[in-house]
Amino acid sequence: MQVGSKTHLKRMGLVLVAILALVVIGRIVLTPGTFGRYGHYRAGAIDDELARPLVHETDASCKECHEWDASYHSKGKHKVVSCEFCHGPAATHVKDGKVIGHLEVQKGGDINRLCLRCHNKAVKARPHNEKVIKLVLYPDHLKKQEVEPDHLCNQCHLVHAPLEYIKMADKMFPMLKDKEGKNVQ
Amino acid sequence: MSSRSKARPQVIDKEEARRLIDRDRRSFIKKVLGGAIAGSLLMVLEAGGELLPPEQIPGIRGEKYDITKRRFAFVVDITKCIGCGSCCVADKREYNVPDHFARTWIERYLIAEDGEVFVDSPDGGLHGFTPRTDIDKPIRDAFFVPKLCNMCKEAPCVQVCPVGATFKTPDGFVIIDYKRCVGCAYCVQACPYGVRYIHPVLHTADKCTWCYHRVRRGLLPACVNACPTKARKFGDLNDKDSEVYKILHGPSILTVLKKEMGTEPNLYYLGARQEVI
Amino acid sequence: MSEGILGFIFPNEFHVHWSFMIVLYPYITGIIAGAFIMSSLYHVFNIKALKPVSRFSLIFAFAFWTCCTLPLLNHLGHPERAFNMLITPSPTSAMAGFGYIYGSYGLLLIGEILLVYRKTLVDLYHKSSGFLKKIYWLLTFGVTEVTPQSLEADKKVIKFLAAIGIPWACLLHGYVGFIFGGVKAVHWWFTPLMPVVFLLSASVSGIAGIVLLYVLIMKYRGEEPDINCLKTCVKFLWGFFILDLTMELLDIGAHAYLRVEHWHVVAGLLAGPLNFTFWKLQMGVFSLIPFLLLAWLSLFNVSDSTLKFFAPLVSLMILIQVILMRWNVVIGGQLISKSGRGYTHFHLEFLGKEGLLVGLIILALPLVVLYVLSKIFPLWYPAKPEAQAS
Fold it and tell me: What is the per-residue pLDDT for B45?
């Protein structure tokens, strides 16, 4: 090849073109297949997200096996509390129709802590609306109800349907009616 | 079907699955469970399988789902939030959210008579709230504010993602492509709501997705499902019977967070005081 | 966990995601852009006094260019996916363009260096042997003869490259400023002045870097730096520094005067977490003193030995000012909680993946590269600048 006064410039140009071509080809080859189907992203990522396994199911799933517990849970005030919140997610309990682990059952002091998460009146920011949440001061509530100060919440309140026993007792012994009177139910 | 052999499962397509289901639903599901037919949960789901609990959001499952024609909204009713943290617990479990990060959280606002605002969110409200003892001023207003992804129509995080790894799905969810995210954290800077973080294990961006995987299965987001007072409401705006449709088409005063950012959130608040940021 | 936290911050704000590495990134990019502008002053604007450093500043810029992405790669959660920025750059993202702007800028820099050095490279090709000869053969694209016509053709191309190089350098660094200035969620960043401030501080840091190294290298080689060149450099440094400081203060002044809602958040940042690094260090010690020194060096007829002592000293101070400015911008912006009610805390580790030590190593690497490059591209050729022909 004849070396002219611009040969090196031409060769530089060629290298530049080769680099640009490499970039263009690289982009075409390496762009994922589903990229750009809906927008500037990989549509396959939607399927990836959909493939995420469920951890929580719904109360209906629990009812499949625990029909008896569900029957009174679904009638009481606590029907709005999801089973899985207190007991743990379904995915750690059942897989493909088989029991793979046992869920926790709240006991002892944990019960009180759990109840006060919602019902503690001392946490001021809660809505003071009986329709939303019934608030109590603890341990004032125990004093008012004239029960032992070491009583656990679930000694009077059935956790799945908190007023079940209270109502039952009211019916059986009308003279012992709840000290908080109208506040109940 | 009778033999419990460990033979390789038979791979079938959607049409075949639908035919089998039409013929005998029960035995089909047994086959899937027994491994005689290989099929993802989704395929079964899409064909109307019974492995899932009943639909919580009507009209999602099955063929009628057109990804380009759906609109969803999330409404948080501040007057109903009791700060129990069920949503945070559900969320942490659903996604195995790393400690010290939150996809959703609850803030406690206490506004003093003189207008001073006290906000806190211990562990994002994951363990509930205990009474605040460090304020000796009279309080005039107190409430909880749950926070989560705003699913902006004009999402800054989507705008700034340099590689298209965070994006808005045709049905309006801002989600993350964990296989393409480079972990630059530009989206973390760009989000005005602080809902994003870099996942310490995955080393990619991560955030609340309104439980897209649940919604597309016809189930409510885990936090909505767990909320005992219905302070969190989620639904389909194409469904005129849905609660969110009614709220959005009713007289309630709805606000969005940081309106001045121009992000046009799909997350609305009921009862948010002006102090809420 | 809550150590150093002021007020209320969102739960995801305890961790500052953009670390020291992201402080270094605009710092190094700025030095590249500034050094290039310096060399263009000679190649395009014919400022003859800057001839002694015109080649040096090109190689200097290229040395920093080679290391510019290191802090970024070290910071990325998935550095192995970095090429996604080139494969699927998002047209809406301020960050996505960096790969292409940075890449094309590198090509431009290489092109200009090869042409500016062509005569030297051909010369060295004939003088060298073995492996080095092969390298020179490649660098001359196999054209080992220089004719007056080819030099004439080169001159035109050089002028063209240098000319488009200036806007390109401005784009490279102004753009880096926009990466920050375009984040509306961070009030400390969100200003259209950000690219201007970045650009001006880039020029300042580039010039300062060249002055400092020029004097040091000359001292090391036992030669005398060109006094006229040094004087001109100092004047340019002063000019750019005035503009830089004006813009930095204008940004804050305007917001402080307007007193809109977000100013109170920024004011809290400047009075609190940034009080020391911004007011006392960046604006106090490392702006005021260099400003006065530069004014003195530029306006008064100082002796050569004074100039040779103070020019590198003031350059060093300005290099520190600029890295403090990057720190205050990058880290400062992230300290503000998006809740508007508090400030988070950043602790710079010494060891750690993104710690101070790694940062200092990354800052030192361009100098190592510069040393290696100088073995191939002699910074002054022939060795004595007085005898330099081209």
Answer: 42
